[in-house]
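User: Could you check the structure of this?
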Amino acid sequence: WGLVCNEAAACGVPAIVGDQVGSADDLVVDGVTGWVYPTGDVSALARCIAQAASDPIDRAERARQAKSHVFADYTVERSADAIVELVLRMCGKSAPNQSRHAPVP
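Assistant: Sure, the predicted structure tokens are below.
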């Protein structure tokens, strides 16, 4: 899991990740919150780096989207709810249908 991608997004920095990185599936949305390239494809990685370095407007938009995405979907409250749900499932119980926490504005 690419925790560094969460941290980068929270700081408004879009990430470039290989498609085998865990966060490539949900945190780094190719073309929206960063760039995803086929792992091992050095040419594709080079293209991503070149695009990030040469297009400050696109990079700034991806940075804005990354920060918005991480603050909307990766909160302490949602993490706590997921842990409670997992523990309850492991104990053979069902979790409540809705979060006990108010959404973070």
